[in-house]
User: What shape does this take?
Amino acid sequence: MAAGKTYSSVSELYAKHASAEECDSFVKSLNSRKLAKTLFALRSKAGLTQKELAEKIGITQSKVSKIEHAQDVTLTVGDILQYCDALDLQLHVGLMPDGMTLVNQVKFHWNELQRHLEKIQEISRGDAGMEKAARDFTFEAAHNITDGLLASLGNVMPKQENEELLTVSAPSDSKELPEDCSPATLSKQLCHHEK
Assistant: This one.
């Protein structure tokens, strides 16, 4: 038997052999099942069979199969909530204006992040251990966010051939401890160029 051409995806096969109309129809069909495919992926990641998931929430395996193969428009919120319960997941629905730009999505998520960090601080008030944990987490989150932002900034900043290395340090006669040298005290520091 002769070996035929292999394709990396069904989409690639369609693109090669189907008409433009058939391709569009196929893509629409795939896109109409995004939520169902996500549910399937979550079940698979949890290592559960359809039967095991069904038993956890008291529905039939057939019902799980129908959910996983449904068009998104036919899924009910109740079906999704049941499915999430079986996987110990919470359902969060986010609504954003249609056509929201990426810039505005970043702003939206930043505001949500701030709201969540404030909620953590609010919940921890009155318990010294929880307040410390909330403070530590906020510092960790700030560090990770700053690292990510700086990495993104590094990707968009123009590279200069002959950049000079700039070192910021405390004067040698400074009475400040190294841990006191933060951006808040940076104005007290001296800057010099490396030779």
Remarks:
- Residues 102-154 form one domain.
